[in-house]
Amino acid sequence: MSLPPLPDALETLESLVVAEFDAHMTLRHGNAGLRRLLSDQETGAWQLFAEPTLDRFTLPATGTCICFEGLITVNGPGDRMSSLRGRIEADAHRLRVIAGYDLDDILSATDTLMELNAALVATQRELARTNHKLTRSEATVRRLSLTDPLTGVANRRALDTHTVETLARCDETDTPVWLILVDIDHFKQVNDRWGHDAGDMALTAVATALHNHCRDGDFVARFGGEEFVILAPALTREAVATYAERLRKLVAALEQPPLGRITASFGVARRRPGDTGRALFARADAALYRAKAKGRNCVAFADDTDLATTTPPA
Question: Shortest CA distance to 87 belongs to which of 26, 154, 6, 163?
């Protein structure tokens, strides 16, 4: 068993004297406090310690021991002598002297620093936990600000942002972008006959069907009232026609007591070069108007007055 190592922080302290000697009283280590007391010659450093003298102590054969505790008189520069409070300890290989001008204050300050450091670590951990909660709360607030509270799909605000991003991205890759506008048929009659709660049920049912059956990467949003928008990039005309018709049939298959069967009309438009989101929506809205004029519950395209996939209402 040997003496424990000393903290590195003691190496630079001049208010504390640390010295270690071997069995022959040769200095093996001294900190800044000891070097301040020494002259240019470090031989005979043990002679700095006037009372008690170090040569009176014998190293233990095994283990460690405290040889002395109390006031230690040291010789300083210019024949100045100082009394320091400290202790002399030893193991089988070395004698260690630790003495300070204000050792009690140093030890107290060390304890205080350790307590402050522990408090700082605890505070940093609490700040990290609080920051994590705040980040999650901010993400939740942002998500809610972009979500339609009734149907759970994206709202108009989210749609506007996503449309700008999608058009810019598809411009870079020369990818076609389709906008599908969906409007629930006879929705005013639903509200008038069954009440707004029933109308909310119909909106939620249609939104869920569109969201659950759209392609990965497509964007579904409630535009307002009974209208929904689907942004669908990277489709051919034939593919988007099949896609819109499939969604129409899914909506038409919905049974919502006490409303019965729900249907919706679909207007589809492809973005033309230079189209803004507003211009694209206006052409899809015109196609939707034509779908309504054709008897509702059908799909109409903006750029072909002859093409419409129609299923007459039952």
Answer: 6
